[in-house]
Description:
Oligomer: single chain
Largest sheet: 9 strands, mixed
Order of helices and strands: EHEHEHEEHEEEEEHHEHHH
Amino acid sequence: METGIAEQAGEAHTTLDLGVVxxxxxxxxxxxxxxxxxxxNRYSGTWEIIVADNGSTDGTAAVLATYASCSxxxxxxxxxxxxxxxxxxxxxxxxxxxxxxxxICDADDVAAPGYVQALSxxxxxxxxxxxxxxxxxxxxxxxxxxxxxxxxxxxTTPVPIGACCAWxxxxxxxxxxxxxxxxxxxxxxxxxxxxHRAGCVAIxxxxxxxxxxxxxxxxxxxxxxxxxxxxPRLCKAFPDLxxxxxxxxxxxxxxxxxxxxxxxRGGDEATLRQLGKNLGRLIGSAxxxxxxx
Length: 293
C-alpha cells in the first residue's frame, strides 16, 4: 500500500474499507488539528485519509508534508485544483481511493474519538449517515450551545450535511458523483436529495461527534448569503422535496428580523444568519428565475 503524502500518484493499490475525504483550500491554519484528531481515532478496518487540495496558495502543502511518515492510515494529498469548488474537491478525493465507505470532513473542524468507527458501522446498515456537531470546543462564544444533529430535515426528508457525513461508495457511483455545478451552497443537500430519490436511506449517528468551527460577524453573514443564493435553485430542482416557503411566510420573517434590528439585536448571530439567508434567497430567486423568498 502507498505510504506518506502522494501528489496525485494514482489510486490506492488495494480496496480499503474506508476513506476519509477532506476538501481543502487554504486550510494551513486548521488542517493539522483535524488530521491529528482523525489519526487518534481507532478503527477496526483498513483506511486512509485523502486531502483534496482545491488550489491552496498558503502553506497547506507544507502542513501535509509533515504527515509523510503516517501509516495505517496513510495521509495522502491529491491535487484537486483543476476545477474549483467543494464538490469538485470531494469528487477528486473519492476518485483517488478504492474505499468502499466514504467519510466527508471539513478541514477546519475536529473529529472526536470514536467518530470514524461510529460512522463506518452506520454504513453497514444504511446508505448514508451523519454525525453530531458540537460547537462549544472550537467557539468560545458558543460555549454551552446544545450539539446539533448533522442529519437535518429538508421538508420531511432526512439529509446528511457535508461537514459530518458518510456515504457508501456505491451511492456516489450510482449518482455519478457530487454535482460540481453546485458551488454556492446546498451542494451537500442536493446530493442527499438525489440519493433519497434513488431510494437510499440515511441515518443519524449520535455517537459520531464532530467539533464544528463556526464563522462570526461579517464572515458569518456572507456565508449565509451564499447559502441563501442556492436555495431557489434547490427548490426549483426538488419542488417535491425541498422546503417551499410562501411569500406571506417570508414577509412575516422579514418583519420579525426588522424588529430585532430596530431593538438593537441585529448583531446577534442568529439574526445575522437569517438576514444573510433571506437576502440570498431574494437574489437567488432572480438569478435562478424561480421564486423562493
